[in-house]
Amino acid sequence: MMPSGPSPPHLPSIIEELEGRIEPAPLTWAKSLHRIPFKVLSRVRAAISPQLSTLPQFPTSTDDFREPLIDVLQTIVKVSGRRSRGGRTREVVDMNGMCFEHRGMKDFYSSPDAAIKAMGKSFELPRASLCPAVDATIGYSNVTTVIRFKLDSKTSDAEEDIIKDEVYRMGIFAKEIFQCQPNRLFVRVIVITERRVRLIQYDRAGALYTPLIDYHENSNMLIRFVVGLASRFEDQLGLDTSIQWGSHGGRKTPGTITIADPFTRLPKVYTMRSVRPFINRPDLCERGTRMWNVRDKAGRALVLKDAWSSGEPERGKPEYIYLAKAKGVDGVQQLVAYEDRTGRPNGEIRSFRPVSAGRPFTNKSFQRIVTPLYGAPIKQIGDEKKLLKAFHDVIAAHWKLLEKGVLHCDISTGNILFGEGKNPPPGLRGILIDFDFATEVDYTKPSFNPRSVPVHDHLDDLESFYYVLLDLIFSRFDIGRRCIIDQMEKEWDNDDDDLSASAKEYFISKPFDVKDVPSFWSEECKEMLMSMHEFIGKLVMEKTAIVGDMTQPWTLESMARLYAEKDEHYRKILAMIEKAISGTSTIDLC
After folding, report:
1. With contact defined as beta carbons under 8 Å apart, do 457 and 443 qualify?
2. pLDDT > 70: what percent of the chain?
3. By three-state DSSP, how is residue 88 classified?
């Protein structure tokens, strides 16, 4: 049973994510997976041999072989000894007539043909559902894998058929497993016909699929796939065992997350403040960011962040490197601890992929950082003066970071927080976070390459600060006024980079109409916006005059003159904000 309807809601996003990220795996890789003792293999092979002969040779639907194939799978798990040991049980479940609920997808339910149900501290019962077809004992939160049945005549090793009908659609299940099991590093699923079997792996680099393997001629492969995906060892299932939950009544309770000290390798244990991460990015590929509220052994509230870093030059270095450079800089997220799993088992994508596959893939390494828990997001504006003070401090922090050779490159409302406590001191009233896209810059070294400077520079970040401030100020709007900024943001966020840039350039080149600003902001704040609009617009025009559309070389001397004034750029913007703060009374915006 697959998702109902011609196009499940998740499918378009999965197709988009996996485009160019799907590759065939060689048979040698499939044979290297899930090795089991020869005695176990022989025992299971003898048990399923008579069962395999009962599978119909020419079925007209998967229902013709569903029952005998389920028997085969259940026998493999039972005879291999994987069914129950040490509180970690594994059970093959026939999902016929049952379905799984998808998080955040109203009235959408789906089901594989079979699944391996699991008990253990990384698994829990699914949430209660109003849909009677959703079983209360099995869901995405407590399966090790899912299985799809297909007619052998409906599949092949033709790449287009595999990608469209198998990799994309099985990705619906894999994506949900990643969401419901937040310690997942990779997900493996299997497609079985009445004669052959294929394994598909999903990870943060994309998807990988094996050729179809005839399990009547080579039953060892089917046995190893199923036994491996029913393993009681969670790391073999693609689960991160450094994350451990408690359990009560079949449901998880807050547990611990452990970091290996990068220098001593000694463990540092943090206690979860809640069962689930407060941020759990839904993307199947990309960075797989998850953020947890935790406490250290002294009881201090902290944030622990997991993400996969590509390490590619154009994507910058791992986040902890930039945070280490920011140590002691007021207004910047501070690093408490980190773990870089490069070179460790399951620590890099290449550690659970073939050495050489059909196409190159982007290797990524697992990174974990721990930072202090700061205040509320900048979007939760309390009063005007508090907002302006926070903004002042993050721009000042950005300046200090630039002096240390770090450029943030991802200024947005989601990456600015208020400082800790009710009355943080100057310098700590706003905090700049999230250095996933940061890069190193050095304006002090001479260069003979006229295009050696980064395409993204401090001028771009200052422009982004201005747009963030606009968004925040217009988020408290008079009736009928919000549409002004909404229309602008719609044009700025266009997927076409050229159209987006043109829309911003057009906006910034026009005079700022202070009458558009919501009435309850102070006159000082409105004056600040007008001055900032004029100043940022001037900088944008100066840079555009030098680099044009970035398709032609530009002179280093012209850019050097503009960059030489960077300190003055920051001074002027900070002075505008300081002037507005000094003339502004505390205006409650809640």
Report:
1. no
2. 87
3. strand
- Say if residue 210 is in the same domain as residue 276: no
The two tokens of residue 563 are 């960059």
On whether residue 5 sits in a domain, the answer given is: no
**Taking the CA of residue 533 as centre, how many other CA atoms within 13 Å lie in the half-sphere pointing to its CB?**
18
Is 198's pLDDT higher than 80? Answer: yes
Give yes or no: residues 296 and 345 share one domain.
yes
Q: Quote the domain boundaries for residue 344.
A: 255-373
- For residue 49, give every residue at least 6 positions away whose Cβ sits within 8 Å of its Cβ, in sequence order, or none: 219
d(CA 75, CA 38): 17
Give φ, ψ of 15 to 5 degrees: -60, -45
Closest CA to 254 of 233, 281, 238, 277: 277
Same domain, 420 and 566: yes
Statement to judge: residues 196 and 321 lie in one domain: no
Domain endpoint, select from 178, 197, 232: 232
| Gyration radius from the chain CA atoms | 28
> What's at 205, amino acid-wise?
A
Whether residues 341 and 401 share a domain: the answer is no
Predicted confidence (pLDDT) per residue in 231-245, tens digit = 999 999 999 999 999
Cβ neighbours of residue 324 closer than 8 Å, sequence gap 6 or more: 335
